[in-house]
Amino acid sequence: MKSTDAQTRPLASTRTDVTVKVAYLASRFPKITETFVLQEILAVQRLGVEVELFPLRRERTTTMHTEAASLVQRAHYTRWLSWAIMRAHLHFLRRKPRTYCGALWTLLRANWGSLRYSVGALVFFPKAVYLAFAMRAHGIAHVHAHFASHPAAVAFVIHRLVGIPYSFTAHGSDLHRDRRMLREKVDEAVMVVAISNYNRDTIIAECGSESGSTVVVIHCGVDTQKFRPPLAAPDGGVGGRLSIFCIGTLHEVKGQAYLIEACRSLTQRGIETDLHFVGDGPDRRRLLRQVERAGLRNRVTFHGEKRDDEVAALLRTAHIVAAPSVPTSDGRREGIPVALMEAMSSGVAVVATRLSGIPELIENGECGLLVECRDAGALADALQQLHEDPAQRHRLGQAGRAKVLQEFDVHTNAALLVDRFRASHLAGASPPLVSPVGPTVVRVTS
Predict the structure, then answer these.
(1) Closest by Cα among 281, 273, 254 to 380
(2) What is the pLDDT of residue 205?
(3) How far apart are CA 36 and CA 222, in angstroms?
(4) Exposed, middle or buried by CB within 10 Å (0-12, 13-18, 19+), for 100?
(5) Chain centroid offset of residue 194 CA
(6) Comparing C-alpha atoms, which of 24, 118, 32 is closest to residue 75?
(7) Please, what sign has the CA dihedral across residues 131, 106, 116, 182?
(8) How far apart are CA 288 and CA 342, in angstroms?
(9) Are the beta carbons of 235 and 265 closer than 8 angstroms?
């Protein structure tokens, strides 16, 4: 833990009076499950950084977090193809043909053998070239991408074409599912943010020990004022109904099937449970069928997607939040689920699996309970333990909030990022603006 503190300590050389304009690259926006991107942007802005948001795709959704609306109105969304994009390509082909072709060649070479990444390189390259020109026209001093996959590749191209320094955050499946081109992205980044020591070790093992000076651990964080304990803890001592929440996309990687099996086991043991799934996803129908087969139709509620303020309200009614995450056959795995941070910040006891960076958030027996992946019996035992010991549940909830306040507060951790953005800006890595050639960013406000 001491090494993490050293890696995330603010840089003493930076100046808080320096104004820096940062472009945020995200895969999709506004994506309801990626609250960490939204909250980080808001926190960074509060610290005086001017943020321009460049989503690679617009998320088509009817549900978004309240604070996302204003960002959507001023986000820079680009078309897949337009005359402006073509003019940008012609500009770089005329002015920097070797740089342009070299960036494209690196994308194709480094991603060769991965159908997903090779196709992504071809699909996003036209946008990347366009954004390179547009960002210089907007006076962007630094690019920060969320996810080590396509967003980081786009940031790489932007840097190659116009020299804007970039960084990116590596989360979960974007790092663990496929690491093609990771070395190239790390080599040219001024900073790589790992959301856990587990991720940092993974990156260094892949890219070599020389990358250690570039990779820093900065945890994702939550708004600890929005997610705070209720004035009075919800009822539910021994003999009462146990309210269990599981928050996140309905997908195999979240392990919801094992939680349903655990609740079936608890029912057989005579423990009354109310299981609540908050979120939506591709596994909804399969999970509904499992609930029917388990005879739990009247004990399980699927709430669908909820805004973060609605999630905060639901957490005030929860006894336990469970996150039985598992690695999937195609390489997906969690980083550190933000839903666990939100629950702990709300003073709710948590049960999760011993996977990836989760043990860095939850110290078993100290601020939550950990079980092995895919062990529904052990999961049921942990839930029963907390049901039968409300005092322990309360103690773990209090300790969990203290842990989040200390290490996973979004405002504290955003300050670490801002410190480094300003350091990059002061280093003078950003080149002068190129002259305009016509393309402007398409703004979509509806």
Answers:
(1) 273
(2) 97
(3) 7
(4) buried
(5) 11
(6) 24
(7) negative
(8) 26
(9) no
Sheet holding 349-353, edge to edge: 300-304, 273-278, 242-247, 320-323, 349-353, 369-371
Task: Name which of 71, 47, 45, 49 is nearest 58 in CA terms.
Answer: 71
Q: Could you tell me which residues come within 8 angstroms of residue 139 by beta carbon, excluding any fewer than 6 positions away?
A: 21, 433
Cα 201 to Cα 359: distance, rounded to the nearest angstrom: 15
**Strands 166-170 and 191-194: what pairing?**
parallel
What 3-state DSSP class applies to 352?
strand
User: How many C-beta neighbours within 10 Å does residue 283 have?
Assistant: 18
Q: Are 21 and 50 in contact (CB under 8 A)?
A: yes
Domains of the chain by start residue, with CATH: 2-221+409-426 (3.40.50.2000), 242-406 (3.40.50.2000)
Instruction: Please report where in the chains the tokens 């070797």 appear, as a residue.
Output: 98
- What's the confidence (pLDDT) of residue 237? 61
Q: What is the pLDDT of residues 108-141, one digit of tens each?
A: 999 999 999 999 999 999 999 999 999 999 999 9
Beta bridge partners of 22: 51, 142
